[in-house]
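[Meeting: bench + compute handoff]

Bench side (C.D.) handed over the final construct sequence. Compute side (W.E.) agreed to return the predicted structure before the next meeting so the bench team could plan truncations. Sequence as handed over:
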Amino acid sequence: MRILGHYVYVPIVLLAIAESAGGAVVFGASAKLLGGDAGLPPGPLLLWMAIFGLTVVAGLTAVGLYQARQRLRLGGAVVRVAVGLGLTATILAVVDFIFPLGIGGLPWVVSIIGSFVVVGGIRIVTWRWLDHELFRRRVLIYGAGKRAATLLKLRRQSDRRGFTLVAFVHAEGDGSPIVDPRVTELQGSILEYAKANAIDEIVVAMDDRRAGFPIADLLQCKFAGIAVIDLLAFLERETGRVIVELVNPSWLIFSEGFRSTARVEIAARVLDLVSAVLMLVIASPLVVLAALAIVIEDGRPVFYRQRRVGFLGKPFTVYKFRSMIKNAEAEGTPQWAQAEDRRVTRTGRWLRKLRIDELPQLWNVLRGDMSLVGPRPERPEFVARLSQSIPYYHERHVVKPGLTGWAQLCYPYGSSDRDALEKLQYDLYYIKHKSLIFNLMVLLQTTEVVLWGKGAR
């Protein structure tokens, strides 16, 4: 299902609708039964029910419970539901303080507890149905060569969650054939095979379309109600990234996206300024505590300055709380942080885990060097090397670097050229689909990264 330009797994949408509706009903009942003499008329009550339901979804989104890649045990899911509804309660407390509903505190408390029971019940009932065959598209791959082999590299279950790969069909011009039991030779037409095997979608993955592109056959399939899609577009939709090895310059030019309007840029800048100021005010106690902890453990300096590559490849100075020992790069060779890096101080380890070391970059956001959301800025030395080995690496600089980003949500901390390639693919997806709504979704889901310390080193 496509929502605001992004593909969302249908069961996730249904789950969000059910949990939003469940929360709204619980709140409506609590407000009516326990709201005292408030006497809310139907109009305002329905409005607040909608607000409550949407805020429940926002809280659960913030802790990653609507991510297709999320695979949790029961205990982990319970904890996340509790934290998510805690965030919901916090948001609603602020809203009720600004726009008092006048029903007292008891209905709110009962609504949150009741929502925990309802959401938990929905999760238990639907747990095994999320990956049911009913919600998976049956896919036929037209091609069985090098390009088609890309599908065999999809290791993560979330990348394969929305479809069942029925078969690969040999096509004219295929290179080295893949070795897979699902490779088949057509005995009749593509349409006949598709109908016989209940195919919902055909993915065109030919190595060389000049060798004989089956236009008539594919048109028959399309007019018969079977979707036909290019391999690159299919993988982009299913994985949330642009597979660089399949990209050619003409695709970048002619595909939808990769453009931004003045309205989007102005709205993004306003969001950056307002959010950065609010975050600095809210986080000011953390800033003071972090500075004191650094000085007590390892003395000054508190802040760390480093050159990074920014918008359109222009260098700028990024600011961070110092989380490593002094002269961490005394040898003069830039290097990525490694797991259990001995250069990281005890205080620095906590600062990195909770992303507190990044807070000074809000100053970069206010200055306009960075945005809240975008590709993470890299050091000039790394950019120079990676641009030589990774195609389209410079294209990540067509937007401002960000404090957080789509790649940070989808991929762990990277410390190798291979990791840089993987993150670039997510960065290109973000650049292609950049919008104010997408930025807000990334910011909301960054809460999970902070609370659970994902990808920190």
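W.E. noted at the follow-up: The CA atoms of residues 66 and 255 lie 28 Å apart. C.D. will use this when planning the next construct.
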